[in-house]
Amino acid sequence: MVPSLLRGEKVLFRRSNGPGGADSAPPPRFRVNFAEVQRMKLRKLQCQVVRDVAEMRSHGREAEGWEENLEKYVKALQDYDYMQNRARSNRDPFLVTGEYYTDNYILGQYLSAGLQAQELETAGSVGDWETDDSRQTVCGTRGDNLSRTWFVNFRRRVAIAAVGGLFLVGPMWLMVLYNKLYAQLISTTVFVTAFGIVMAIFLNKDDAVLASTAAYAAVLVVFVGTSTSGDGGAPPSL
User: Fold this and answer.
1) Under 8 Å CB-to-CB from 230, ≥6 apart: which residues?
2) Contact yes or no for 213/192 (Cβ under 8 A)
3) What residue range is the signal peptide (predicted)?
């Protein structure tokens, strides 16, 4: 079965930037996902490779062109992975959608009236609706991309610094304000567990998650030890 390549944009839109006025319904918008087209290519190449393997098994000899077909399949799979990674960018270059002014013009030029009249799946908006004055290039200019990348990375670094400071200063304040052994142990357990979950979300390697969580736990354990021994060796209050 051929996957659906077109998705209608007939309902979900931003009224402030939509092409229609307050009293007029906006025209339908459409979306083409090149990643879905690549999946079709993957399935086609997969069938060719399976056919080659079945032929070699049945006839006891190499099928003509099986190495090239396998190489094409691997390359197509790598291209699909690249498409998936680019989908995380600010604007997916493998998605032609009606929210973008130039994309909407291209879609309008090549989609027939009969196709536009079909009942298609409604998809959510991927961003603000562009106008003739706010339209952007498909991948952005070099200067805009550099400035946007710097700003995005700066915001990420600020967020990381804020979260890191919260995980360090937060439990210390709790341990000082509630200078009880149980409060310190509970605070350490909760914050170490939360920190480990955050690391598991953002880190891809198991050893990195374990090392960062163990290092953070060591910092809190040292602070608990210094807090409980601050009374000249007297046992801490429970």
Assistant:
1) none
2) yes
3) none
Q: Letter for the amino acid at 63?
A: A
Please name the helix (run of DSSP H) or strand (run of DSSP E) that holds residue 171, with its range, or none: helix 142-177
How open is the CA angle 17-20-23, to the nearest 5 degrees? 120
Copy the structure tokens of residue 194.
């939360």
Query: Alpha-carbon distance 117 to 169, whole Å?
Result: 59
Residue 31, strand partner residues: 7, 97
Give all strands of the β-sheet with 95-97 in edge-to-edge order: 6-9, 29-33, 95-97
Angle, to 10 degrees, between the axis of helix 181-202 and the axis of helix 142-177? Answer: 160
The overall longest dimension of the chain from CA atoms, in Å, is 86
Helix ranges (H only) for 21-141 are 34-59, 66-86, 101-110, 113-116
pLDDT at 232: 45
DSSP-assigned letters across all residues of 203-218: ---HHHHHHHHHHHHH
Name residues of the chain where pLDDT drops below 50. Answer: 1-19, 21-22, 232-236, 238
Q: Which residue matches tokens 């990348």?
A: 149
Could you give the 3-state DSSP secondary structure of residue 19?
A: coil
Complete DSSP assignment for 62-88:
PPTTHHHHHHHHHHHHHHHHHHHHHTT
Residue ranges of domains in the chain: 6-116, 142-228
What is the pLDDT, as a whole number, of residue 14? 30
